[in-house]
Each structure stands twice: as structure tokens, then as C-alpha cells.
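Example record

One chain of 210 residues, shown exactly as stored in the release files.
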Amino acid sequence: MLFRLPIDVLILLLPTLLFALCFHEYSHAWMAYKLGDPTAARNGRLSLNPMAHLDPVGSLMILFVGFGWAKPVPVDPRYFANPRTDMMKVAFAGPASNILLALISGLAIRFLNISQINPGQTVATLLYFFTYINIALAVFNMIPIPPLDGSQIFSNIMIQKYPQLVYKMQAYGPQILMGIIIFGMVTNFRILSFIMNPFISLFLAIFAGL
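Predicted C-alpha cells for this chain:
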């Protein structure tokens, strides 16, 4: 829960989280625009302005729960030449953008030869937070549960063979995701962290050598 962190950590953490979230949503809008859909651009979402993307409830969830969301980017697949595959591209653009940012900051950590992260090292701490947050956002959003991006990607792959499963996941996915989060808060057994941490550690090692 971010609100329990020391103020000096929050000062570094919140701006990196804010930028990572906004860049994620901007990337969805950019990809949709490039594929022919102007909907997001018309709604002011083709922007890095935080006010265009932040969701009040999702922002509070980040502070108090550790997981949250920004406002979904509006997409109209009728503009796409290949709606199924183009929707997958739009969905993947968000996590891919976070992986790109994590790679850049991870390479900066390697270039600066930072082997340990100490609270007194502001630049090192900032780079570590930026790398970690972007990897975590990418991994979290690739989980194939609606409304996360992974559900859009994998649903389009699975729908031809398992349509009923896809429809049920789309209908009940948000409740399942919220249930998993609440279960973790109540029992302190965080299923999402259990799933995500190995991938986060792997990418941290690959990108930053940490």
C-alpha cells in the first residue's frame, strides 16, 4: 500500500508511476490512431497529460491497495482493416510501451554501473522505481483476465476454439480480478504477487542486472 511508504519514497515513486500509467494509455491511443481509429484522439486521449488518463477510483486503489487503473482508452474496431488482429495490437501496445521504458531505464542502471540500490542514491532509486514499476505494469496487464490488456489479446486467440469460456471471462472477469485482490488484502496471500514476482525478477535481471 503506497500511502504507508515514507514521504521521501513517495516523492520519487508517484511521478514514475504517473508517467508509466499515462504512457501506457497514450500508447493504446497512438496504436489505435495509427491503425485508423480516431476515437481516442477525438476524446483527448492521444496525450501524455495525466488529466486525460487518470481515473479517480483507480488512482485511489493504487494508493490504498497497490493495484489500480487509468481510464480505458475508447476504441472503435469498425475503423480497423482487420478488427480482430488490430484490437490485439492496440491491447498489446500498452504493456509493450512499459517494457520499452523499463528496458531504457534498465540499460541506464547498467550504464551507470549501479549494483545496489540505497535510499541515499536519488538517481539510482529513481531509475530502480521506474524500471520496476514499468515491468510490473506490463506483467500485470498481460494477465488474461478482463478488463486487463491480456484478456483482449488472449481472448482473440481463444475465441474460435473456446467461445463460451471467453464469453464467461468477459462477463465475470472484473469480479474475479477484484475478488483476487480483496482475497489478498484479507488473507495476506497475494495471488497476483505470486504470479507476477517471478516475471518481474526475470525482467529486472535481464534489463538492469539486478
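Notes: DSSP finds nine helices and no strands in the chain.
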